[in-house]
Amino acid sequence: MSSKSVTRDEIEKKLRKQIDILPPSLIEDLREQLQSRKISKKQLTQIIKEVVKAYQESLVQPGEAVGAVAAQSIGEPGTQMTLKTFHYAGVTELYVTLGLPRLIEIVDARRNPSTPTMRVYLDEEHRQDEEKVLRLVQLIEETKVERVSQSVAIDLAEGGIVIELHPELMKDKKITSELIQEKLQDLKVGIIEGDDERIVIVPELREGEELVPMARLQKILKKVREALIKGLAGVKRVIVTKEKGEIFLDTEGTNLRGVLRTNGVDNTRSISNHIHEIAETLGIEAARSVIILEAEEVLAEQGLDVDIRHIMLVADLMTNTGEIRQIGRHGISGQQSSVLSRAAFEVTVKHLIHASIRGEQDPLLGITENVIVGQQMPLGTGSIDLLMMPPKPPKEK
After folding, report:
1. pTM of the predicted model, to two decimals?
2. Sequence-separated (6 or more) residues with CB below 8 Å from residue 220
3. By C-alpha distance, which of 320, 339, 261, 299 is closest to 98?
4. Residue range(s) defining the domain that contains residue 53
């Protein structure tokens, strides 16, 4: 073996020959590893040969039942998952759905997750300054009228709604009585008067009314209590968390679009666990990434090791049409072209009746439908049709 180490140019020349075989990401990793070590030409050749061999052996063979393998790989450890629905994020009282309920939420593509949360990272300027962090919290956390009031109630003597303000809470959240009155004006609920301690709302009488009906007062009361004064709608609570020397924000409730528009937020790392919101805000590719990330986190938290390629296959299937579809009868399984495959999943009679009414035909191209009718299924060796050309008889002389 030669003791002379290979040069960078020699490594580059060898790697260039593998461009048609290995993916770019693997070549890049290999380049970094090889350039950081002193190796001979013989060792370089042997390393690349072993990497190519390992890569080719890891590829899926044509006819492999990737869907069934992925379903088993996720479903089997899924049976070992705890049914414990919530846990506390860190030491704070922030509920986060985990375990089997969260995995079901992900594959069912629920429009509204049970515990929507965001992790908001801050930019260089804000992440080290506690005062700036607190200012950012006030900009993000929603503040409604009832959160800065001692009481919000119907007062029949005044003939309307009376808000008793809480000066300390208002000072803490940097909210003034004028700001509250300004926001209440937008609701168009009546004549608004007040000072630093009290605001009175008197609804205007309609034609033929001597007093404002109690039913209308109750509706106005609800509107006033839930009126947004400051912050982003939907973000109920913001918790400041410090981990590995970095300050970031965990939220209860989501408003990703609003957060990404907030000055001081690191847009490249901030994320929500609300998959549909991610798709609407950042697009379907981002939603696919979040499906993979969330499913991986749920399984890892339970101590389950599932190859990421199985999760990626599920995520691809859920998002390949440009919209998020659930794995169920209202999504992927219910939209299959095969009548028998749809009927085999759920609501069998309904699928068969509808297909009969429409006069549908089943081309019998999938696995499920061929198993049902007892034919060879297109899987493994069954996916190949062999045609043989018989030899022509010799011409007679």
Report:
1. 0.77
2. 160, 161, 189, 190, 201, 203
3. 299
4. 8-58
